[in-house]
Amino acid sequence: MLDAKIPAGKLEEKWNNYKGHCKLVNxxxxxxxxxxxxxxxxxxxxxxxxxxxxGYKVKAFCFQDSARRAHSIAAQGGINAAKNYQNDGxxxxxxxxxxxxxxxxxxxxxxxxxxxxxxxxxIDQCVAQGVPFAREYGGLLNNRSFGGxxxxxxxxxxxxxxxxxxxxxxxxxxxxxxxxxxxxxxxHEMLDVVVIDGKARxxxxxxxxxxxxxxxxxxxVVLCTGGYGNVFYLSTNAMGSNAxxxxxAHKKGAFFGNPCMTQxxxxxxxxxxxxxxxxxxxxxxxxNDGRIWVPxxxxxTRRANDIPEEERDYYLERRYPAFGNLVPRDVASRAAKExxxxxxxxxxxxxxxYLDFKYNLINKYGRTEASKQGIHNPDQETLIRLGxxxxxxxxxxxxxxxxxxxxxxxxxVPMRIYPAVHYTMGGLWVDYELMTSVKGLYCxxxxxxxxxxxxRLGASALMQGLADGYFxxxxxxxxxxxxxxxxxxxxxxxxxxxxxxxxxxxxxxTLMNIQGTESVESFHKxxxxxxxxxxxxxxxxxxxxxxxxxxxALREEFWKNVRVPGEINEMNPELDKANxxxxxxxxxxxxxxxxxxxxxxxxxxxxxxxxxEEGEALRHDDEFMYVSVWNYKGDESWExxxxxxNYEVIQPTQRNYK
Amino acid sequence: xxxxxxxxxxxxxxxKNSQSAGRFETYQVKDVSSEMSFLEMFDVLNxxxxxxxxxxxxxxxxxxxxxxxxxxxxxxxxxxxxxxxTTTCQLHMRAFKDGDTIVVEPWRAKAFPVIKDLMVDRSxxxxxxxxxxxxxxxxxxxxxxxxxxxxxxxxxxxxAAAACIGCGACVAACKNxxxxxxxxxxxxxxxxxxxxxxxxKKRALDMVAQMDKEGFGSCTNTxxxxxxxxxxxxxxxxxxxxxxxxSAGLSADK
Lengths: 658, 254
Description:
- The complex is a heterodimer of chains A (658) and B (254).
- By secondary structure, chain A is α/β, with parallel strands linked by helices.
- Chain A has helices at 14-21, 27-30, 42-54, 92-102, 109-129, 161-178, 244-251, 315-319, 329-341, 358-372, 380-406, 461-481, 495-514, 520-534, 541-561, 573-597, 621-624; strands at 34-38, 57-61, 79-80, 154-155, 182-185, 188-196, 199-207, 213-217, 220-223, 256-257, 262-268, 291-295, 312-313, 353-356, 415-424, 427-428, 441-443, 518-519, 562-563, 626-634, 637-644.
- Chain A has three domains: 11-263 and 422-481, FAD/NAD(P)-binding domain; 267-420, Succinate dehydrogenase/fumarate reductase flavoprotein, catalytic domain (Flavocytochrome C3, Chain A, domain 1), CATH 3.90.700.10; 495-622, Methane Monooxygenase Hydroxylase, Chain G, domain 1, CATH 1.20.58.100.
- Helix content of chain A is 38%, strand content 15%.
- The longest helix of chain A is centred in the middle third of the chain and has 27 residues, at 380-406.
- By secondary structure, chain B is an alpha+beta fold.
- In chain B, strand 1 and strand 2 (23-33) form a beta hairpin.
- In chain B, helix 2 packs antiparallel against helix 6.
- The longest helix of chain B has 16 residues, at 236-251.
- Chain B starts with a strand and ends with a helix.
- The interface between A and B is large, with 84 and 81 residues.
């Protein structure tokens, strides 16, 4: 039933062999084939642009007011690629190996190797488009390091790499819009997939301005709709980020892979009060130069700058001398939680640790600058002044953002940070061709489960989104569409379109007619609290069982007592939100079920029952070396299938960053 | 940081849709924490309105990190409010004090029609990009990234212009509703890089033509755009655009 369609042959030859043998569609036929792309982040915009360039007729949809605002825009630190421009020992194999290991051996070897192979093409592509990456004085591309690696392979544009890459992809797509190859539908939200004779043939979308439901046909449908971190209410995702498209697809037969695999990012600005609507990330790149510490004394009352060096516990450097502050995200997050739970947290809530730049600002940047400028024996003040200038260039926008939110100046006092929900490794199950279990329905980028296993490494999300969109789907979708050239566009009066639209319409009517007393927001907050407490950074059997019961009750209450103001046929943000939260209330339960099933710890999934003596995640490869693949059976019930992970090249071991 | 609570009076523009006339509505908001963001204050107000059985206020917002460019409130006569170099979503209530009256309007420009309340239609910006805001390369180029060296100074200037988030504050601030800062940021981003050289003339001419078609006004160099730009895009970009446009106009073949 589950066939990942991984090509035969040696790992490093699979992708080339696939490309050499997959079916092709000739240019005249491409013009007759229509493709729907939902979502215009890095994966969606790059896919729509490239498929348009190839000559397919593309329709692209986004719920934002412009394609350029998709949440990829907010990615900060960088994008990985195995260019080895730094001559520090990098290679395709190393990037592949680091990603598999970083993912705690729960990703597919063949997919990850392909990702590492095409990573180098992404950089070339983006440079050609005019993405203004950071450069050395000699005019060549610069790199920085990220967590879980010992090389410098991350390309960046200050703290705005996602923005620059997305604008590159957006511009490429707008060029295709101008050429008539891509038709763009902004402020449109997909609310169902239309499946005819077992194949995806279109979508039902709602025009968010008029509120009208619309039907669109496609020979294939490509979902690039991002992750589902907003199940937790508070996360680093944008307010509108949602799981509705993938959830509708799931209910139409697309399997869901590893729903419990969520990434908690270690460096975010801590929660300040009940009014909080979202959390803000401070890029992992800051761990290049920031040192993380807590006071050695419990209940410390002195201010950070007044605590002498010998009374500080640089706990990551202490526990993981080899990787230090650059351990992977799951490890860093758990270590922060451990210190705070043990009573060493800082700030008013005691749920925070320090991220301190002073040491590197003075000793690394200050001294280098002084030496460059020929200043001998510089005093402390000069070093701080010179160091600040360099730090400003590297991370200026992040420091400004921190100051605006907290009112504190991070050049003077250490940042206070705490882990927050950031990314979901789980997503729709896809095969090697990125096709879901529904024929002709594809899923790209964060929305699929494929490349990051149980934990994603920093700067790899941008890499995967663009790899899928620019370099994978253009080949794999052709292999499917080659057999569809005889299929004439199906009129949207077809009964499957009628039925799908009626179903969507009925649900919207139901939501509007409840007219209860509680707002959508209040239900979302309550769901988030259950998820964070019982399916967050640490999970256990008892908590997960309770969470499932609580979520079911909350869902029932939602459908009885939610209040959605306004009307259907108008711009109604509360209704948009109600549609999304209703889906989160179902997905949250599946996440808990998956977390309950996986009685091991791996990557971001930490089961308290399964840890080493030192508190590290303890995997059980003998029992859990599989992808959990959930098949929706209707009536809120699922069956779980298993895709075994067969490693041919890498030998899984206990991850060690010491 | 000293935290405090405040009571505020809000005068907010309410408009059902693009066809109907709008008006100001007055709201009282109590116990607003100085730690809230401006949009979180609106969240609190909307929750209150929903509980009272009233219509919440529609406003555009998404990332709440100052990078997506969605949020767009005209606060006390200034796009994005009183803080320099800051989007509405990054503005925090520390900027206000107890008893303040705050007036909030949508962006006002012919090319940005109101959709509802504080939401406007900025698709004209997308069409300006479609007119030439790109480098015409298809996916699959095979030249190595480092085969195109870029002078670091130019790369930095290009990046500074490319940091534009397309929010439209420049248009909202301009008495002529000109889109010159937005357009010049894109032209500068691409013209400063060797990759952008080949289409340089055509790009400047075509994008300006599209801007005029969309109904944006002319630039009279008042500098209001630069003063309110949340990403601090410099007005020197407009000077660069004018040079590009002039030299393209003088030397173009068509």
